[in-house]
Amino acid sequence: MTTAPILDESKVLELADPLPLDGGQSLPGVRIAYETHGTLNEARNNAILICHALTGDHHVVSNHPKTGKPGWWVRMVGPGKPIDTDRFHVICANVIGSCMGSTGPASPAPDGEPWGMRFPVITIRDMVRGHIALLDALGIESLHAVVGGSMGGMQVLSLAANFPERTRAALVIASTARHSAQNIAFHEVGRQAIMADPEWREGKYYEHGKGPEKGLAVARMAAHITYLSEEGLTAKFGRRLQDRAEKTFGFDADFQIESYLRYQGLSFTDRFDANSYLYITRAMDYFDLAEEHGGLLANAFAQSKARFCLVSFDTDWLYPTAESRNVVHALNAAGLPVSFVELSAPFGHDSFLLDVPALDRVIEGFLKQ
């Protein structure tokens, strides 16, 4: 059975007061783009906040306004689905620093010009402060649950640790409590590709009508490799060559995997801002939940009373299962109820976005408890 696509239902909250940031500055004129699905009950206690990943946005169900594609988690969210909008009021907000409606480097600064690289450095906790401001505006004191994968999982951990009274459950999928040196290294390759593009112009490219598209495409290509698994790449592409009338050798896309990556890179430049990519990847690299709480991860959850569920995937080498186990051990040390499962899937880190029925069952079961 197919259902009609849900059109863009975005709303925008404009904060009356500047948003305080970890760097000591305050961000004025903040706008937060978000969408909601399902009905908030009279007790206002059935809300679920979904946090998106690095290149995601608040279009969790609705069609993306630039690509026209269905929402990034439309298979998971909706009536009768694991995150059931017949039962829950679902909220998803675009993080600050992004480029899909919330305030970011491409937004106007107080002088009317785009922020560009004048935009203040942000952290995962700053993104969560934006979410809390949104919940305050919506009159939601405590969430039924907060859910997220990848960078979304970082936001879930940060919210549960730094605003423990604001959620009764936390579901963290394919994520980590801090970035490894390898994670940081891959992000730095992407950032350098963007900044080496002559069209970057030190971040002042908005008035020129063309940004560092080649650099951003390369950054996306490098990152996309980390989201996949060797098993998945081999099954889908192997060493197969492009279908050509005459076989040639050179620097065109000879292999199918080359063509696929180039497509991923080029299509990404149509929907994402290069400066946002710089800021958000840096926020992920700075994330270290233990360091925020005296160097001991268990301390981060000392005030929490939430139940937790962590999910990892056996082919995810970006945030391998050991990263989830590290968080589980900390939650055990803090005396909190936590369930944990490693799921088998061939898709690598991207498994949380793809068809993994076992994940559906885990999410549905945890949220119904």
TrEMBL record:
<comment type="function">
    <text>Transfers an acetyl group from acetyl-CoA to L-homoserine, forming acetyl-L-homoserine.</text>
</comment>
<keyword id="KW-0963">Cytoplasm</keyword>
<keyword id="KW-0028">Amino-acid biosynthesis</keyword>
<dbReference type="InterPro" id="IPR029058">
    <property type="entry name" value="AB_hydrolase_fold"/>
</dbReference>
<dbReference type="InterPro" id="IPR000073">
    <property type="entry name" value="AB_hydrolase_1"/>
</dbReference>
<comment type="subunit">
    <text>Homodimer.</text>
</comment>
<dbReference type="Pfam" id="PF00561">
    <property type="entry name" value="Abhydrolase_1"/>
</dbReference>
<comment type="pathway">
    <text>Amino-acid biosynthesis; L-methionine biosynthesis via de novo pathway; O-acetyl-L-homoserine from L-homoserine: step 1/1.</text>
</comment>
<feature type="binding site">
    <location>
        <position position="220"/>
    </location>
    <ligand>
        <name>substrate</name>
    </ligand>
</feature>
<dbReference type="InterPro" id="IPR008220">
    <property type="entry name" value="HAT_MetX-like"/>
</dbReference>
<comment type="similarity">
    <text>Belongs to the AB hydrolase superfamily. MetX family.</text>
</comment>
<feature type="active site">
    <location>
        <position position="349"/>
    </location>
</feature>
<dbReference type="GO" id="GO:0004414">
    <property type="term" value="F:homoserine O-acetyltransferase activity"/>
</dbReference>
<keyword id="KW-0012">Acyltransferase</keyword>
<feature type="active site" description="Nucleophile">
    <location>
        <position position="150"/>
    </location>
</feature>
<keyword id="KW-0486">Methionine biosynthesis</keyword>
<feature type="active site">
    <location>
        <position position="316"/>
    </location>
</feature>
<protein>
    <recommendedName>
        <fullName>Homoserine O-acetyltransferase</fullName>
        <ecNumber>2.3.1.31</ecNumber>
    </recommendedName>
</protein>
<keyword id="KW-0808">Transferase</keyword>
<feature type="binding site">
    <location>
        <position position="350"/>
    </location>
    <ligand>
        <name>substrate</name>
    </ligand>
</feature>
<feature type="domain" description="AB hydrolase-1">
    <location>
        <begin position="46"/>
        <end position="353"/>
    </location>
</feature>
